[in-house]
Amino acid sequence: MSEDRFEELLGPYVLGQLTAEDKHELEHHLEECPRCRDELERVRQTHSLLRELAVSEPPAELKSRTMAQARGETTTRFEVRWKVWVPAAAALLVATILGIGLLQTIIGDSSASVPLNATALAPGASGELRGAKVGENFQVELEVRGLPKLQKGEYYEMWYAKEGGGRISCGAFRTQPEGRTTVHLTAPVNAVSYPKIEVTREPDNGNPGASGKEVLVGDLRNL
Amino acid sequence: MRLHKVDRSTPGTRETFRPIVKGMGDEELVGQVAQGDERALSELYDRYARPVYATGVRLLRDSHLAEDLVQDAFTNVWRGAASFDPKRASFATWLFRLTRNRAVDLNRRRRVRPLSAGEEPLRNVSGGPEPESSVDLWDVAEALSLISAEHREVLNLAYFEGLSQREISQRTGVPLGTVKSRTTAALKRVRQAMEVNAVGEPRRE
Lengths: 223, 205
Fold this sequence. Notes:
Chain A is about 30% helix and about 30% strand. Chain A has helices spanning about 5-10, 10-15, 20-30, 35-55, 60-75, 105-110; strands spanning about 95-100, 115-120, 125-135, 135-145, 155-160, 165-175, 180-185, 195-200, 215-220. The longest helix of chain A has 22 residues, at about 35-55. Chain A is rod-shaped. Chain B has two domains: about 1-5 and about 20-135, RNA polymerase sigma factor, region 2, helix turn helix motif (Rna Polymerase Sigma Factor, Chain: A), CATH 1.10.1740.10; about 145-205, Winged helix-like DNA-binding domain superfamily/Winged helix DNA-binding domain (Arc Repressor Mutant, subunit A, Orthogonal Bundle), CATH 1.10.10.10. Chain B contains eight helices and two strands; from the N terminus they run E-E-H-H-H-H-H-H-H-H. Chain B has a two-stranded antiparallel sheet. The longest helix of chain B has 25 residues, at about 175-200. The chains are: A alpha+beta, B mainly alpha. Chains A and B meet through helix 2, helix 4, helix 5 and strand 6 of A and helix 2, helix 3, helix 4, helix 5 and helix 6 of B.
């Protein structure tokens, strides 16, 4: 085997993919060839980084969630291209689902529900919160109707709030022209100590805090 | 339609065709994303979700928050692609900075509530390199995006899909001997790309 050929085998060698015969020949060559030993060291370092990168793989379903979230924003990003806004779509329905994969369970149990009340900022809005405590999580489905149309860059955000201050963001969503959006969010474990539900209207100014513009309010203690 | 064409960069072989998006550079992909092309976003996700996630896990010490970080970061790529200026920084550098900023935001939100059992506070997000640095992973991910599509493919299959050299040969139609030499060549190219890039990219500032 030529030196070049030995060098070509370094990749499969660090991957443990050589036949016993090739491996034996290569290792014998490495004992005698400092240049190939140096090259092996460099290949090994890159191999280790790629291995580390490989084990940093996020859960597979995260990609479809991420793509769905981006897709959900498409209509707002290209809002100017929309020729027709469908106001009559009316039934602005936003289903905010906390707890992925348990939608069926939640829908099946509509007995526990909390009405969401409109504030002066959104007199035409109404909503309902349905949900249950499942293990350490709160699984909640939120339905709202008649929320005001958002300006460019604005979005709605749902919060768990504590009496006397303190909020946990449950995530942000936008209503869409056809009036239907499904947003997947994660519920915090300790939501019970934050019994109030607020939906606020938020400007896109980079400030993660609540704007204080509440459009719907409710109380989980009524659940 | 453009992205549905195939890359025939190696005509005359039995190799399977790969979607042209696989052969695009990062900056070209961002341009496609700015036009609303989901396939381009999907490809950027495949190239960079790992370092974003690793950064989240290391900084936030919470895998759920790290997942939120991945979602946030790529939604921001989708939203902000039109404002990306390749003259100012590479895509990887842009995404790295965006990722760190989003990690700070996520931590700020977390601070409004007590930490859950087993949850640790964010580590060193005020600026500067983090102690257990994830920058090597960013460098290697970017280097992978800089090498040729055929080199990237063989490494993706070997490391991320866990295929043996023989399985790669069967999957791609490339002779086994070529797969072996191409794997070695690809590893060398990655290293070279990292060395060149380390000089030119002050990402760690």
